[in-house]
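User: I'm writing a tutorial on reading structure tokens. Could you give me a worked example: one chain, its sequence, then its tokens, then a sentence or two explaining what the tokens reveal?
Assistant: Sure. Here is the example chain.
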Amino acid sequence: MNRLPKITLMAVVLVAVGWFAMAQEENAIESAGRNGPINFEEIITTAKEKVFPALVFVKPIRESYEAGEKEREQVFGSGVIISPDGLVVTNHHVVDKAIEINCVLWNKEQVPATLIGQDKETDLALIRLKWEGKEPLPYAEFGDSEKLTEGQFVMALGAPFGFTRSISLGIISHTQRYIGFRTIYKYNL
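And here are its predicted structure tokens:
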């Protein structure tokens, strides 16, 4: 079974990134638990330092024709760089109908991007940064969603509502949710 849909509806892309960050700290949690109290502040800080550089603030411009007039609208969202050459996972609803996409990187540099593909059903989209830098981009990797269990801690990292960066902590509430509403897909999450 394709793991991408499994990650999607568990708070979209950001929890997947947070899961990666927390998965990287799994050994630290286990060893800390054996050696004394768990220091969540230290674990969150370490995970944040690893993932924040891979987050991007996505700023698409949409064009619509309301009341017979052409109007432009800028919308905002979050994404995460998943490869050193600039592939970014974001949400379909963020880039849908975009005529132009710009992303703000960790260093506040604005970089244009192109839409590679999108899927309305899973609310995922893939864009590519037009990166001309000499160094590879920082990137995050997906965790293994098959290893998720209810009650595990996850982090949601992103740049919602125009904030430069944000971080939230939560737990996995369900890993086998059935999506039975009208969709072309029938799968368990």
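What the tokens reveal: The two ends are 10 Å apart (CA to CA). The longest helix spans residues 12-24.
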